[in-house]
Structures are given as C-alpha cells and as structure tokens.
C-alpha cells in the first residue's frame, strides 16, 4: 500500500558511490572508487588483546547502556590528543562521541537547518555531507574553491547574495573528493568572514593526521576565538571504521544541543567500541600506527601519480595531494566521466564520477580516485588500464571533433 | 558567539529521565527509574568467546566499513527468528539493522513527518519516541488507551479531527511506560482503521519476548496484509544494549527508503557488533538466555507488586503487567508525582514521574516504576520506602483537605 512520505524524501536518493561499490564486488575488479582504509594495516591482534581485557574487566559495563556524551576516559584522551596535535584548547566537556562523523553531519543539519536555509560548502564537497544535509531541505551554496581553499571574494559575494546562510561546511585538510588543503591565510580569512556573519562552521577533519609531506597547518578550530567551529574527528581513517566511533568538539552550549539531538537519534554510540578505543589509546601507540598508514598511503599516492604521468593522455589535469586518501581528475569539459566509467568497468577498474560531489549538479567531466584501499601493484595496473581507456576516449573525441568540424564546414 | 538554530531545536529538551538517572548515581540510591536490563545476567563469557572467534577469523572484515543494510547473515537470522516466533513472513531483504531502536524512531520521523503533520500515539507513550519525533516538529495526537489497547472509537474520532495524521506509533506488547498489552481484537480493529486511512504504523516491540504468563499474541506485523507496519525489534532487552544493534522489518519499497535515510544518518551500524550477535545466535541458544530473563523479571515484578499491595496507601492504582520491564502508577488527581519524587529521593528511591510520557502534557499524578534493574531485595526495600513516602503524602493531603474544608466552612 502506498503511503505519503515527508517532502524531504523527494530529495534523498541512494548514493551513487554505494551503487558503484556494489559493482566493485565483481571478482578481479580494481576499485579506486571507495574511500576504504587499508584493512591489511588494521591492528587486529592488538584490538583482540584490548577487547579481551575490556570484556574481562568490565564486561557488564560495556554491554550496558552508557551516557549519551560518551565514555569519560575516551573524551579525555581525545581532548588531550587534539590539544597536543592541533594546538586547540578543548576539554572533555567539549567532546561528544558520535556514531561515525556521518552522524555528526546529520546532527549538524538537525541543529542548524530549516527548509530553505542555505549551507555554504566547497565546490566540490563531500557526498556524504550533501546526503546528510539534504534531509533538512536546504539550498547548497557552492563557493569557488581553488588549490588554496575557498575563494574569499566569492565567499563574501555568496553570503551577500544569500541572506539565509545558516551553516558552513568545509574540509580544509586533504579534502574529499579533491585532495586539496587550505593555506593558513585562507583559513584565517574564512574564519574572519564567518565571525563577521556569525555563521557556525562544521570543520570535517577525517584526514588531517594523514599528511605525507610539509608542515601541519592549524585546523580552523585552533584559530577560532569565538566558539563558532564544530570540529569533526574520527577513528575511521586513523584506526578503523567498523566500530563507528568518531567525535565532535564544540563550545559547551553548542555541544549540549548536539547531545540532546544525539539522544533522540541513537541514545549513545557503542559502549564496547568506545572502551575498546579508550583502552587501545591507553595501552598502545596510535601515533606509531598512523605513521605506518602515512608511509603506506604516500607510496600508493606516488605510484598512482607516477603511473598517471606515464599513461594519461594530455588534456587531463589532476591534483597532487599532500595527504589523505583521494585525488581529483578533470577531463576536458565535453567528456562525461560517467561514460568513461562504463568503459573503465569493462576493463575492470572502478572510480567515482565527480558530478555527485557538486550539490547543484554539473561538472560531469570530473572524477575521484582513491589510493588507500589497493596495493601499489593494483594501483599501477588500475591506472594503466584507466590510462588506456582515457587514451581511447580522447582519441575518439579528437576523431569526432574532426568529423564534426568537417560536417560543419 | 550566539548563532541561529533551526526551529525544531526549540522543541528539543534534555530528557527528564536522563536528569533523574544522574541523581541515581548517588551511593545507596535504589533506582526504579531507568529501563536498564539486568547487567548481572548478560552472557559476558559467551560474548568474550564469540568476540575472540569473530576477531580471530574475520578481524579485518569486522573492523572495516560494511553495508548500510547490515550483515547478511544477521538479517537472515533475524528474519528466521521473527517468523518462527511471531508468525510473520519476512525475508532478509525486509530487514534493516539499526543503531538501537532509537535510530529506527528517528528515521521514521524523517521518512514520514513534515512540520505540522500529526503522529498518532498511545496515551501515555514512550518518551524516547516523543523526543525522536519532536525533531520533525509534528503535532502529537494522543489516543485514549485502556488495558486492552487503543480505544478504537477515540482513534476514529482522532483521525477524523486531524487530516494531517501521517504516522501511528504504538507498543502493543508490555508498553513503556504503562506495562499494558493490547488484546487481539484491538490489534485487528486498529489495523483495519490504519488500512482504511493508509496510515503507516511503527510497531515498537522491544519487550514482546519478555512475557511472564499467558499466551503470546501476534504482533501487528503478523496481521498486516498491506505492508503498512514497520516492526522495530532490538537486542537491547533480550541480549544486551551496549552494542547498539537493533532492526526494523518493513516491506521492501519502504525498507529501501529507510536504507537511504540511514545512509545519511550513520552509514551503517557497528560491523563488529553485528557479527558478534550473528555468531552468538549461530552458536548459542538465545532463547534459553531469554527464559532466564523472563523468570528473573517475573520474580522481580512479583516482589514489586506484593510489596506495593502491602505498603501503598489506598487511593492509588497501578497496572499488573504480564511481561516487560515497567509498571504504571496513578495517584489521586491532585497529587503531583514530581513532588513525591523529591521526598522519595530524600529516602534514597528514584522513579520517573509520568507527565513526561504525555507529549501534550498533563497527567502529573502518574509515575513509572522499573522492575528489571534491581535485585528482589532492593526492589522490596525501595517499594517499602516509597510506600512510606506515599503514606505521608496521602496523610498530609487528607489533613490539608480537612483544614481546607474547615477553612471553607
């Protein structure tokens, strides 16, 4: 029997990435599509060890309901790590444990967005954030973004043109999907604008610790003197995603609103998962694990870029990220990455067409490549195949162009 | 810096239960307030055993991202259990794993409720559902409810008076907070009305398997020939809540909408938690565990009721639930349970005043008692103390009544 759904459901659709990921289950497929961390580097034995301890010493406690805010020791450890690493000055009471950063995105939409309100974002921006916010029926205002971050002139213009801007969503470090990072100057200038207009900022920082080269830059949260920035951190990319444990750091009054919203959303995150991570952090050196991730992903990025240089035809540009999991490719404006994907899947290589990362559409000539999930050998082979596909597409296009030119002459 | 919040945030407030539960941390407090399952009955050693196996055999898999729908084996086991126990005919593709039933409530609001829409509910109803739905700014239409379920005449009248009814939310088995269950006749009559008006029904069933006496009745889902019922089940009360693993069962087209909404809400529930439960169900006899819960909670209910009979003053009525975790007390109409709570906390006993369970307010003369979380000795002692407090309140009231009568004469 058909029933009436809420208006917001018109906007929601299944993620294109999820559909592509289903195709990557085919045997032999080289997937540069997802954003999976390297499972072969998960510290499985140490997690076993920690889990045995947690269940042995506090089994009843970790199988029971627990506070919405999250485990006190884990919040303390997270605050300490943030301050040591990023120069923030957050305390345990600024931290809320979330069920993945995806939940923090959903709660942010819930806190700040009425239907018709506007959310400022980079162009392109993270698909998961677009999907989370869409449930709250906002307009998306895409701000021009280059290799140094948001264009401040376009930002000012966008705010002037949109009186209903209620939230900004940004990923200043090794952005998904582009791999770009913001310069310090842009971070400061962006925050100045946000303060002037009292716009809260969700700073999504899943990749900040995965820097391969250069000096770390302070996150917006460390530069924020006005309590406007909600910092999202996660263990998914620096430890493992399967436990669904992430966090947000926000000024206490704002955090309290998030706590209330989370209470209605899932009461609390896994009690066991929180204690597993707290005890892991107490007993083991997560920073040493992260150093291995950094080295591994840097090598994979290098292989990807080197093979792209060797095999991609001319007329195609791409970013050279200094960290994170992704790089971003721009094809000539008249080439549709979805068509390229069809050919590429035939050759056993998957990627994500970039159009999905633009909430207002367009930019179908872009695509995202992931370099964290496959071995160097697979990446090299995948890029060689993709290079061949692109070579054919570009050759055919040149041919078609000639034919059209002839036809038009 | 103050920022503008979404309209819905005006409605959200911290749960009163959560505030009371903080008080129950005081040493020596006898808490009849929460809804915690008995932690001393959690099968901790078997969970340790299962967890060792899961991390040992599939560690990389359970620490990685996993599908939004949930683990295929767990969904298969849940469908099989539902069909065997409840006479439903659901398949694995009807099941979506959720992060607690609380998430299924939040997603239900997201799917069905626009601001100003109406949700039908029992009176009283579950506070966690009220809080979840409030984020979607509905009206709550409370339908008169007696010991056999919703009053069908009042239900028809309520629908006729409210053209914007878009959803019904009910707990037909051992309801939270009242402990009441619906008769078979009411279940059928209710569903007939829902079908006639094409109103989707969220059937929350966390307690159905915790029956102490009498024959099980079919859930609405088993009586539903039109795919209108979304059944919510959970491992929180029959296994343990700390892993945050629950499920919903809905017709495939509807389930697909829930999958999309969940994808935006938290991507997926804990991969490890799902596999822990699937392997537990494959290796151990959950039904035998549940039988122990049933016997334990029945004895605790019996002690609670017996002590209430012995110590409560006359003029106070209460339900005698045949299962679940809660019973419900009505004081004389002019006695405010929040005042009683203040006295009771002084005597080291906590409960939840009932007013919070009425979304439209009123009914401050009611309260909820939990009998699952404390030992029989503590329950007996707690009820004795509460009986004394109530005796004093009633005596004072009688005295005041006389004084007022004299003053007025």
Structure characterization notes:
- The structure is a homodimer of 409-residue chains.
- Helix content of chain A is 46%, strand content 14%.
- In chain A, helix 8 links the parallel strand 7 and strand 8.
- Chain A is globular, with a radius of gyration of 22 Å.
- The longest helix of chain A is centred in the last third of the chain and has 33 residues.
- Chain A has two domains: 151 residues, Aspartate Aminotransferase, domain 1; 240 residues, Type I PLP-dependent aspartate aminotransferase-like (Major domain) (Aspartate Aminotransferase, domain 2).
- Chain A has 409 residues and is of the alpha/beta class.
- At the A-B interface, helix 2, helix 4, helix 5, helix 9 and helix 10 of A face helix 2, helix 4, helix 5, helix 9 and helix 10 of B.
Which architecture of the largest domain in chain A would the CATH scheme give at its second level?
3-Layer(aba) Sandwich
Proportion of residues in extended strands of chain A: 5-15%
Number of strands of chain A: 14
- Which strand order do you get reading across the main beta sheet of chain A? 2-9-8-7-6-3-4-5
Task: Spell out the blueprint of helices and strands.
Two copies of one chain form a homodimer.
Chain A: H1 16-23, E1 30-31, H2 44-62, H3 72-86, E2 95-98, H4 100-112, E3 118-123, H5 127-134, E4 139-146, E5 149-150, H6 152-161, E6 165-170, H7 184-197, E7 201-204, H8 220-223, E8 229-234, E9 246-249, H9 252-266, H10 271-283, H11 286-311, E10 317-318, E11 326-330, H12 337-346, E12 349-350, E13 352-353, E14 366-370, H13 376-408
Helix pairs in contact in A: 2-10, 4-5, 4-9, 11-13
